[in-house]
Amino acid sequence: MVLSGARQTRTGDAGRPAAHHVRRAEAVLLAALLLALAALAWPAGTAAGAPARAAAGQATADQAAAGQATADQATADQATAGQAAAPGHGRWSAAPEGFASLDALGQNGTTGGRGGRIVTVTTQEDLARYAAAPEPYVIRVAAAITVQPKGTEFEVASDKTIIGVGTAGEIVQGGFFLGPGTHNVIIRNLTIRDSFVEGDWDGKPQDFDAIQMDGAHHVWIDHNTLTRMGDGLIDIRRDSSYVTVSWNRLHTHNKALAVGWSPNVTAQVTIHHNWFRGIKQRSPVVDNAAHAHLYNNYLSEQHRDDDPQWTYGNWSRGATRMVIENSYYDGIRNPYQADATAELVQRGSILRNTTGRTDAWGDAFDPRAFYDYRLDPAAAVPALLRNFSGPQRTLGTTTVVTVAPDGGADFTSVQRAVDSVPDGNTGAVTIAIAPGTYREQVVIPAGKPYITFRGTGGSRDDVVIVEDVPSGQPLPGGGTAGSTGSATVLVRASDFTAEHLTFVNDFDEQAHPEISGHQALALKTFGDRITFRDVAFKGNQDTLMTDSPSLTTISRVYVADSYIEGDVDFIYGRATTVIERSTIMALSRGSTSNNGYVTAPSTWRGNPYGFLITDSRIESDAPAGTFHLGRPWHPSGNPDAVGQALIRNTWLDEAIKSSPWTDMSGFSWRDARFAEFRNHGPGAGINDDRPQMTAEQAADFEVADYLAGTDGWAPHRR
């Protein structure tokens, strides 16, 4: 019977997971350093650094070759090798290695819910609904979900990523089921535990698996902990294929991982970097698989009882062709065995305190003929998996959505990527934008915080978001766009970040004399805690507006190591805004007397902090003495908008007027709060029209003073 999108089984008691050991930080650092160096020299698909082979194709701890630690030394506390967090090496890879990465059966690799909506779940009902939905989803599990009835398995439809948020995501006394035809599924960074029924060690009456698949393909199971279930931990059944199982912890259980339940010899599986601890059997067992590739797995602390026949590590059964590489067997009875009808090739593994069968015969297959992969040395495997297998604190905390103009990513439009983030989003989402020009207007709604735009090109000029809408542009339903409607990018949300890209409004004033409203914003913000790093803002009038939802609401914006260009009031608004270590380019309008205004703050009089430009350069292509530093903007003549601006420790071009502040709309600049401090360059100077702060006063107007607010926000200290 199916209940709420889940496969119902039976109820019972729950247990508790085993605690993880704490590892010394020094060992982790040494491990990462050594393997990072070694990775530079090891070609993909090779076992460089592996120990010398014994005659039967095995290496024992006593036979470890020179340059590789003995098995006793390969512990977390005495690591001789480790793993760098290099993309593609497996620890935090964005894509699977092995058979799940291949194009086959009409599916191009395994991408899960890529391109679908991102949702965060904390209840059984929500997880069941999204997992079984026909549409693609990235499902973030942000809590321990206790499943009722006990043993219920969530039905998972195609095109899903189910990922735990840090170490918070748990499925307690339940699991997942992938039925016939289900494909393109990623299950990652979860703890799945405790559907075990006391007294039923074998588990057959319950069949409470952690992950069970029948006839599924292109599945990636990565960085999970699976323990104390009611039958198998992972069952890959009935012609399921193109499956990769990587970087998992499977522990304290009878039957861990099995492939088979079919007379057809079609299954293709890759099982790498998994820690099987306290397991009796099936670590794994593979029956009638066309190709089973096992590498860099760690088997330890095997469960022993009075049934030695069914106590083993790896088993190649039926017509299976199995290749084992660079794995580590510690205290294992029957480390690897094969039926006479099967084939098993083993190379480079370490056996320590093992007994029983170590079968090896036949040619099996060459994994390199199917895909590239990287082997870690066998002696490094215990340290690697003790430290880096199972759920990771940083996995799932940030969802990455990709955009590319020519396809090959989740989306071709930046706005569509934003649309995929749910309203009420509570998790960090990075929208990684590939090089290209994206001609579109983009709106980040107020209900979608924690979004980061990150350009992935070699420079910020490689990724450009651009449109040419002016404030005076007529709208189809009447009226005009207005300044807000002209913005190429409009950020209403808080906690937004943009890095390494360019925002442009390229409206051509000269080409459109029929349009009177020339304000054309490259970007406008309303939210709080907005950060821009290595970003360019390009336009003419009103290039960058930093605003807030209302006059008395304080929003904060931090701009660092960036470039801003324009001519009239091109940095303006009422938000508290810091511009640091940046270049501000004041563009000439061809005048010999007045080419424009750099700033136009409209700070609420109750806010002591408006604009701060510090440690920057204000450059210009205009003639000397033709540009103002700013003027006071009072929107709609509001007398409570009393602009504050401080320009300090900044180089000023000769284009800056000797009297750099001026009046606006009948409001005197002398009634505003304008000042300088220790500026330099040909445009700098001190006179009666250039108020200067004293050192004592300036001490209260540092970057931290502007940004701290009531929550201590300090993006400049990153």
From TrEMBL:
Q: Where is this region: Disordered?
A: 68-93
EC numbers, comma separated: 3.1.1.11
SMART domains cross-referenced by the UniProt entry? Amb_all
Report the residue ranges that make up the Pectate lyase domain in this protein. 117-334
Entries under SUPFAM superfamilies matching the protein: Pectin lyase-like (SSF51126)
Which domain of life does the UniProt lineage start with?
A: Bacteria
Q: What family does the entry list?
A: Belongs to the pectinesterase family. Belongs to the polysaccharide lyase 1 family.
Protein name (record)? Pectinesterase
Q: Which organism is it from?
A: Allostreptomyces psammosilenae
